Amino acid sequence: MKPGPISAKPLSILLSDVFTDAYAKQGFAARELVTRWNEIAGERIAAFCEPLKMQWPRPVEGQPQEPATLVLRVEGPMALEIQHSSDVILERVNRFFGWHAVGRLTIRQAPLSRRDRPKTPRTPDAKTVAKVSETLGAVEDDDLRAALARLGASIKRN
């Protein structure tokens, strides 16, 4: 008897409950606030801060839920800039949630836990560009030939 097909599940699906529980302990109703922070806050703001936790006030029976406080971890020198951008951050976070979930920000100065800033691409060396350019004799436009040579050299480098 031949064994059946192996159905592999992505690791993200298997660990989904683990991550959801971990984020819930930090007060995050949705983990997307952390995982999609660059999209929500914008790359300029997200480069210098990250959400640490959300603090929800205790609900009072018969009263509507008060908005949460979003605690941001901010690199030291940028704390003042992020504080000045707090209205923009609050607007973007609440727009993401679709309701007035966050009422204020609190800043904790500390180094960020992640470093996923975009790397500046290196320009290819002149020798490789010249070698690729020799193979592009059929291209008549000089600017186009130079651009294609740089592209080809970059592709060969990778």
What would your notes on this structure say?
The chain is built from 9 helices and 3 strands. The model has no long low-confidence stretch (mean pLDDT 81). Helix content is 44%, strand content 14%. It is of the alpha+beta class and 158 residues long. The chain has a 3-stranded mixed sheet with strand order 1-2-3.
**Oligomeric status:** single chain
Widest sheet, order of strands: 1-2-3
The residue ranges in which pLDDT falls below 50 over 5 or more consecutive positions are none
Structural class: alpha+beta
String of helices and strands: HHHHHEEHHEHH
Give the helix/strand layout.
Blueprint: H1 11-14, H2 16-25, H3 32-35, H4 37-41, H5 43-46, E1 49-55, E2 68-74, H6 79-84, H7 86-97, E3 102-109, H8 126-134, H9 142-157
Parallel strand pairs: 2-3
Antiparallel strand pairs: 1-2
Helix pairs in contact: 8-9
Quick take:
With 158 residues, this protein is of the alpha+beta class.
Task: List key phrases describing it.
single chain; 158 residues; alpha+beta; 9 helices; 3 strands
